């Protein structure tokens, strides 16, 4: 098991398949992009599958989420999913994507064994999308989501980040649209993980703001008496159900005490937390011919050292060197 000194057990593995992206969301990346990892530094498809096999067979991981950067840019994605689907025990597998290219790949991903997708969409307005992501691809994202729904990659969850002065007024419209389309909407509070260090606590749209805005149009009741377990999203039933909406309040209502995550970057580093400032190098172990048990032991040791919380509220909080796009949200 991947257990830490606070008794938390990590069963949910986030695997970043690339740090590259075809969008430039303002809360994530600068306009000019970033200095991408060099190809030899990236884990190969075989290395990724081996690490996931070790996680699933030796370390108790039951959920695998592929992310990035933009994971659909990884040429070997379908093959990686297919090989992971053949593992015993078979992990549940999902993908967090910006949706561009999903129209083309949804059927193949489903056939390979992917269970579902989370697609990121912050706005229903193409012009705002262009400002937020610095690319004119709104329709591609909508088409990708619809293709995922048709392919049975369900429930299709939609991740939305609200930014002051851009889309902060869109929460009710996004919810009405998601319900109509049959998608599950979750709002994510903006976190200090952008490469440009542009995040400001004062200016951010909080979970409280989002709920207040939603309540101007919908009746919301906490689902399961407000218990969210290890799920980061607090969920609310909308107008008596059955539809729900989630809010992931990593900043104002952190869920660190129930965290069940472990993360692997595209260059083979284990991270115990989005906000961790230390990493454990599994790629070096793989490339020096370490056996499965030695790699598993390194991973266990890394997780044993997981800190109690993100440290966001500590006076000395330091943003990690790796931005969100290189960690995998
Ligand atoms: N490119 C894919 C996508 O956008 O879905 C996967 C990677 S992206 C880093 C994963 C999620 O992180 C997205 O839903 C995105 O909106 C979210 N994200 C990125 N930067 C963020 C930030 N600074 N605060 C909160 N969420 C962020
Ligand atoms: Fe790319 Fe996702 Fe970051 Fe947007 S949030 S720039 S889509 S990695």
TrEMBL record:
It comes from Streptomyces termitum. This is GTP 3',8-cyclase. It comes from the Bacteria. Binds 2 [4Fe-4S] clusters. Binds 1 [4Fe-4S] cluster coordinated with 3 cysteines and an exchangeable S-adenosyl-L-methionine and 1 [4Fe-4S] cluster coordinated with 3 cysteines and the GTP-derived substrate. The keyword 4Fe-4S applies. Belongs to the radical SAM superfamily. MoaA family. Its cofactor is [4Fe-4S] cluster. One of its GO terms (biological process) is Mo-molybdopterin cofactor biosynthetic process. [4Fe-4S] cluster 2 binds at residues 256, 259, 273. Pfam families: Mob_synth_C, Radical_SAM. It catalyses: GTP + AH2 + S-adenosyl-L-methionine = (8S)-3',8-cyclo-7,8-dihydroguanosine 5'-triphosphate + 5'-deoxyadenosine + L-methionine + A + H(+). GTP binds at residues 14, 65, 96, 157, 261-263. Its EC number is 4.1.99.22.
């Amino acid at each position: 098991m991947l257990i830490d000194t606070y008794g938390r057990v990590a069963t949910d593995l986030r695997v970043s398949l690339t740090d590259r992206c075809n969008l430039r969301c303002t809360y994530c990346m600068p306009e000019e992009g970033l200095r991408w990892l060099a190809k030899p530094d990236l884990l190969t498809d075989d290395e990724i599958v081996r690490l996931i096999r070790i996680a699933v067979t030796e370390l108790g991981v039951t959920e695998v989420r592929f992310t990035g950067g933009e994971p659909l840019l990884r040429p070997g994605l379908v093959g990686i999913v297919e090989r992971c689907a053949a593992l015993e025990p078979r992990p549940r597998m999902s993908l967090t994507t910006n949706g561009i290219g999903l129209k083309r790949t949804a059927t193949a991903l489903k056939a390979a064994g992917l269970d579902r997708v989370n697609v990121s969409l912050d706005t229903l307005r193409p012009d705002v999308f262009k400002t937020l992501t610095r690319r004119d691809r709104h329709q591609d994202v909508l088409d990708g989501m619809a293709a995922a729904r048709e392919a049975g990659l369900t429930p299709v969850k939609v991740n939305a980040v609200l930014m002051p002065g851009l889309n902060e007024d869109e929460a009710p419209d996004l919810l009405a649209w998601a319900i109509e389309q049959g998608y599950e909407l979750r709002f994510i509070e903006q976190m200090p993980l952008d490469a440009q260090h542009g995040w400001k606590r004062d200016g951010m749209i909080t979970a409280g703001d989002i709920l207040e805005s939603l309540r101007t149009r919908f009746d919301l009741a906490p689902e399961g008496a407000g218990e969210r377990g290890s799920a980061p999203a607090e969920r609310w039933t909308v107008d008596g159900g059955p539809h729900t909406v989630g809010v992931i309040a990593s900043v104002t209502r952190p869920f660190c005490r129930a965290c069940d995550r472990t993360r692997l970057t595209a260059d083979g580093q284990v991270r115990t937390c989005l906000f961790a400032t230390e990493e454990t190098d599994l790629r070096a172990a793989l490339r020096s011919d370490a056996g499965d048990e030695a790699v598993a032991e390194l991973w266990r040791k890394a997780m044993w050292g997981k800190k109690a919380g993100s440290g966001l509220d500590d006076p000395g909080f330091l943003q990690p060197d790796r931005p969100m796009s290189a960690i995998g949200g």
